Amino acid sequence: VMARLVAVVGGGSSGLACIKCCLDEGLQPVCFESSDDLGGLWRFKENPEADRASIYHSVIINTSKEMMCFSDFPIPAHFPNYMHNSLIMDYFRMYADHFQLTKHIRFNTKVLQVKQRSDFSQSGQWDIETENKEGKKEKHIFDAVMICIGHHCQPNLPLHDFPGIDTFKGQFFHSRDYKTPEQWRDKKVVVIGIGNSGGDIAVELSKVTKQLCLSTRRGAWILNRVSDGGFPRDVFNTRVLKFQRQTLPFGFICNAAERRLNHRFDHSLYNLKPKHRYGRNSTSWWKTSAPDFAHSFS
């Protein structure tokens, strides 16, 4: 019996894991990666490419290596707790080499179309059309499809919300176009948004600019990556802590968390105290959405 064919769209972190899982289950994966390399979001390039995620040179992950590693392939002990994007790429290459995943990836191959076959109700199969960098198109039939592309490809630049932007004489751009701080030395800069990228870039630019302002339409509870004793904050997300969150009163947990955050610095003093309680704006109270939650990067 032939192994069932599985199309994996995208060769980033999710795509690599899906290839490995397919192989573990005796399936036959074929990964289509539109670029010439694996890594997806975490591969730094000097010039942003259309319809592709783009990171700045200094990006360090917000998840500790103990929490982000693939369960069957630990990150090397000598790597730092929070890795630079270049080390994340090194790790992905180690993972791909160790499990021989690269031979299942077709690089420079863009997926143009994915649709159910006419007999899908009986066969469960999919028609996929691809195109390589020479422009050659191919049609394939697969038993299953795994979509492993990210959601950071299209920048959100709502210029209609900024009256007078058409006469603004300075430069404005989205964070995906930001790479290094040097070109902003001795200039006045406003960073709009207090999510992870906004906080990161504001801290980096503050070291070289003449004046730096970080603008946010509402407050945020600021957490740093490192917790008590120098341990990564996310390693304390244990079952005991989850049990406490589920059993103790919401207000009690919020008061305790907010006291600890304000002990580091008073959010009211910096006009950062949000109207919502710690973790309120989320599907589960102990998780927070990007606009209301930012790491401190000092």
Task: Walk me through this protein's architecture.
With 298 residues, this protein is α/β, with parallel strands linked by helices. The chain has seven helices and eleven strands. The chain has helices at 13-24, 65-68, 85-98, 120-123, 196-206, 239-247, 250-264, and strands spanning 5-9, 28-32, 105-106, 109-116, 126-132, 137-142, 144-147, 188-192, 211-215, 221-224, 293-296. The strands form four sheets. Strands 3-2-1-7 form a four-stranded parallel sheet, with helices on one face. Strand 8 (188-192), helix 5 and strand 9 (211-215) form a beta-alpha-beta unit. The radius of gyration is 23 Å and the shape is globular. The protein starts with a strand and ends with a strand. Residues 282-298 have low confidence and may be disordered. Keywords: Endoplasmic reticulum, FAD, Flavoprotein, Membrane, Monooxygenase, NADP, Oxidoreductase, Transmembrane, Transmembrane helix. One of its GO terms (molecular function) is NADP binding. It is a single-pass membrane protein.
What would you call the structural class? alpha/beta
- CATH class type of the largest domain: Alpha Beta
Q: What fraction of residues sit in β-strands?
A: 15-25%
Please count the beta strands (DSSP E, at least 2 residues each).
Answer: 11
Weakly predicted, low-confidence segments: 282-298
Mean pLDDT level = 90
Total domains: 2
Distance between the termini: 57 Å
Task: Report Rg.
Answer: 23 Å
Architecture of the largest domain in CATH?
3-Layer(bba) Sandwich
